[in-house]
Automatic annotation (TrEMBL):
It comes from Oryza meridionalis. It is found in: Golgi apparatus, Golgi stack membrane. Keywords: Isomerase, Membrane, NAD, Transmembrane, Transmembrane helix. It is a multi-pass membrane protein. It is an enzyme of class 5 (isomerase). The chain crosses the membrane at residues 40-58. Gene3D superfamilies: NAD(P)-binding Rossmann-like Domain. Residues 470-481 have a biased composition (Low complexity). It catalyses: UDP-alpha-D-glucuronate = UDP-alpha-D-galacturonate. This is UDP-glucuronate 4-epimerase. Its EC number is 5.1.3.6.
Length: 495
């Protein structure tokens, strides 16, 4: 035996057992009993392997059994009673596995309870991205009218996950369970469809943000393309009956289109950002699943949605934070010298549009059993905007008044990072098909946002007084001020 192999043998066998190993070391070192050495080496290896298997099993049971997380605080799962074995897709976020509570009878009961309609004729909706901004508001509105809602969210850290947890707690308080789960977890989705005959999927989970797409392009592909495909695959090939799908597209699909107001008939083949390209890809993918599998699919092109419980990555939200803290804000000016303009759309108006789209979606016509469709199913796309673009500088002026503080503004040329100079929705189709009529001005909507913002971050703003000034209502009496505050709080929690 070469000297280094003998040395390795000595090293391994030293771990095998105390006194015996010492004896062995002497014998191996003398080079006299080589065959005894290899025999013991084999035994030591087997022992070490068994010890490792034992340790692994003890410390990492979640890797060996399937975990479904129940995280609304409502009820508990049954430890170790995994619902079924599964692999995790490489596309999935790892956050879901961290504090897992296992599936089982109690978990299934909670899932069914949350998804069960409370009224005759109510629908059962699986809401993806339920702890997101639009997802939270839609889930609350569905629950408020007696529909069944089960939420999914992967609680990723794109923006403050604590805000998502706060929304989750709000939903739990209204009886809506939001599972820690990723839309790319096909087996979990299948399991949920086995438990609940969902009539609809409101698919809002996505990687949002136009400019962030330059920093993290792959996350857009994973959520907005792969994630959408996973949801549609399960809905088409596993769910029985197939649900109708309503999902979040985006105003950004209009890209470099200059015809205004943007109509669903306009070109959408010139996306300005990868975000827009993934949403456009989603619309093409929706066509395929409708065509082949008979899924009823409705895409909603949201226009810069804002309001209470909003997204901190959006300009109105982080501008408000910066104004309060005295930090500078940067405003983009378009190439023609005009201020950037957006068709800012208030959350309550968008929620009405989402519910209208769900209620008029029509049925899917395919069968996951036979793989055939009985005829064409609805395939729709709608703008959900406010129909009145406002310069971003005006949005900042409203915030300044509401917050009682001037912004420290810096105006720069719009960087070429996926942004577009303006958006403007034509909502004729949504108005015709489900009565969509946005009614909230930017002044009123931002007043509701700032009421919530001050409350959530515990800021000492005299919000009702400032809000009334902006709305031109004069100085409110203390009773009308408190009535206003109560109304805003009720709205932010129930819309
Ligand atoms: O409708 C959509 O489909 C998208 O709407 C939203 O995108 P946008 O309309 O771009 O909103 P947002 O980032 O709030 O910028 C607002 C304005 O502020 C300007 N803006 C922005 C940042 C900045 O630092 N300065 C600035 O002037 C900027 O030029 C713009 O004019 C969603 O984020 C997106 O997920 C998607 O849903």
């Amino acid at each position: 035996m070469p000297a280094d192999a003998a040395a390795k043998g000595m090293k391994l066998e030293r771990y095998a057992s105390g006194a015996g190993a010492m004896l062995l070391l002497r014998r191996v070192a003398s080079g006299k009993v080589v065959s005894a050495s290899s025999h013991l080496l084999f035994r030591a290896t087997v022992l070490a392997t068994l010890a490792l298997v034992f340790l692994f099993t003890f410390h990492y049971p979640s890797l060996l059994s399937r975990s479904f997380t129940l995280s609304s605080g409502a009820g508990g799962g049954e430890g170790g009673a995994a619902a079924h074995a599964s692999h995790r897709s490489l596309l999935m976020s790892s956050s879901a596995s961290a504090a897992s509570v296992y599936g089982g009878a109690a978990w299934e009961k909670e899932v069914r309870r949350s998804a069960k309609p409370r009224k005759d004729g109510g629908i059962a909706v699986l809401v993806t991205g339920a702890a997101g901004f639009v997802g939270t508001h839609c889930s609350l509105a569905l629950r408020a009218r007696g529909d069944g809602v089960l939420g999914l969210d992967n609680f990723n850290a794109y923006y403050d996950p604590e805000l998502k947890r706060a929304r989750q707690r709000l939903l739990a308080g209204r009886g809506v369970l939001v599972l820690d789960a990723d839309i790319n977890d096909a087996l979990l989705l299948e399991k949920l469809f086995d438990l609940v005959p969902f009539t609809h999927v409101l698919h809002l989970a996505a990687q949002a943000g136009v400019r962030y797409a330059m920093e993290a392009p792959q996350t857009y592909v994973a959520s907005n393309v792969a994630g959408l495909v996973t949801v549609l695959e399960v809905a088409a090939k596993h769910a029985d009956p197939q649900p109708a799908i309503v999902w979040a597209s985006s105003s950004s699909v209009y890209g470099l289109n200059t015809d205004a107001p943007f109509s669903e008939e306009h070109r959408t083949d010139r996306p300005a950002s990868l975000y827009a390209a993934t949403k456009k890809a989603g619309e093409a993918i929706a066509h395929t699943y409708n065509h082949i599998y008979g899924l009823s699919i409705t895409g909603l092109r949201f226009f810069t949605v804002y309001g209470p419980w909003g997204r901190p990555d959006m300009a109105y939200f982080f501008f408000a934070k910066s104004i309060v803290s005295g930090e500078p804000i940067t405003l983009f000016r378009a190439a023609d010298g005009a201020d950037a303009r957006r068709d800012f759309t208030y959350i309550d108006d968008v929620v009405k549009g989402c519910l209208g789209a769900l209620d008029t979606s029509g049925k899917s016509t395919g069968s996951s059993k036979s793989g055939k469709k009985s005829g064409p199913a609805p395939l729709r796309v709608y703008n959900l905007g406010n129909t009145s673009p406002v310069p971003v500088t005006r949005m900042v002026a409203i915030l300044e008044k509401l917050l009682g503080k001037k912004a420290n503004k810096r105006i720069v040329a719009m960087p070429s990072n996926g942004d577009v100079p303006f958006t403007h929705a034509n909502v004729t189709h949504a108005a015709h098909d489900f009565g969509y009529r946005p009614t909230t001005s930017l002044d009123a909507g931002l007043r509701h946002f700032v009421d919530w913002f001050a409350d959530y971050y515990k800021l000492k703003l005299d919000v009702p007084k400032i809000a009334a000034k902006v709305a031109g209502a004069g100085k409110p009496s203390s009773s009308s001020a408190s009535k206003k505050k109560k109304k805003a709080a009720a709205m932010s929690a129930s819309s």
